[in-house]
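Dear all,

This email documents one entry for the complex benchmark we are building for the journal club exercise. For each entry we list the sequence lines for every component of the assembly. Then comes the predicted three-dimensional structure of the complex as a token string, followed by one or two observations. Please use this as the template for your own entries, and keep the labels exactly as they appear.
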Amino acid sequence: MKGEGLKIVISGPSGSGKGTIVQELLKQGDYKLSISATTRKQRTGEIEGKHYFFKSKQEFDSMIEKDEMLEYAKFCNNYYGTPKEYVDNTIKLGHDIILEIEVQGALQVKKKYNEAVFIFIMTPTFKELKNRLVSRNTESMDIINNRLTRACEELSLFKEYDYIVINDNLEDAIREINTIVAAEKLKSGRYENFIKNVLANQEA
Amino acid sequence: MKGEGLKIVISGPSGSGKGTIVQELLKQGDYKLSISATTRKQRTGEIEGKHYFFKSKQEFDSMIEKDEMLEYAKFCNNYYGTPKEYVDNTIKLGHDIILEIEVQGALQVKKKYNEAVFIFIMTPTFKELKNRLVSRNTESMDIINNRLTRACEELSLFKEYDYIVINDNLEDAIREINTIVAAEKLKSGRYENFIKNVLANQEA
């Protein structure tokens, strides 16, 4: 059964390793990545339509107004969002698309795409999350503590997600996500046409 | 994540190969099989609590009355049903249990166990279903045609199931069911205690 691709929303606290997981899925598997739009200035080396869709503030506002954004947020005076059109076109071509989105954005997406697959990535323990953030050695304890508070808030919303993947080991996490995607493709909702055809061709 | 076992309801038309699939799952995997109760007389070689739980009509009626049957039906003047207790005890021990039940029974089970995993087995085409029934060479065309009519009725209820597995090839079908079961174990609903513990042990 081929058909439309899946929309796979992946969230997880800072330090959960979701970025690495997404990069590994893109490398190993047959996934596409959703491309964000932003009002931030294009930087040297960044390619339009690959790293971002670069938009003026007016264009971004207009996309919001026309309901062309799956979710958006303001960060450091710039807007970031997920254009619906790119996602829709990608799944129509049969590709599974990954949307790496923080929890509040994922909840916005859920309102528009209830049929998307929502996966939450977490470390085995909270302590482990802290260790990973600390061992990066790039942020002050203030920032780390902010991230941990946010992780706590995000974790309390786990029920909004369909699946939890505990990233104890990258290989296992990747295998689990591939398993989820394979099972989702066997969901009865995707077999409407198949059943219709079977019933219409009883003598064929 | 261990926890409770899954309740896996498997249905499919006569000729879909669901019986072979279930036997193969039991042989290869770590599954238990739900044991039916019946008012039919115990036959030589049949073992109480293995092949069936043998019950008098009074006992069976009393189980229905006490809501101890997940589903039941009358067939050739005998009652057949699925006792709830055996299923509940099995999953509490962490075993995944398979309930091989025809569609009407499955719909009864769904009312009691909405959280169970419902899998519908079908051949790739209707013609193939017919071929398999004919090639058994054990039944008259009248009986085969009855079975095909029933298959058609059952197929039209496919949306009541969570997943469809097309049994084109036994090995693939087994792998798909194992994939479904693995993915179901990653469902967020099973992680309530995990998240609770993570949040309660932020300093641990």
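Observations: The CA atoms of residues 14 and 147 of chain B lie 7 Å apart. Strands of chain B lie at 7-11, 31-33, 37-38, 53-54, 69-75, 78-83, 96-100, 117-122, 163-166.
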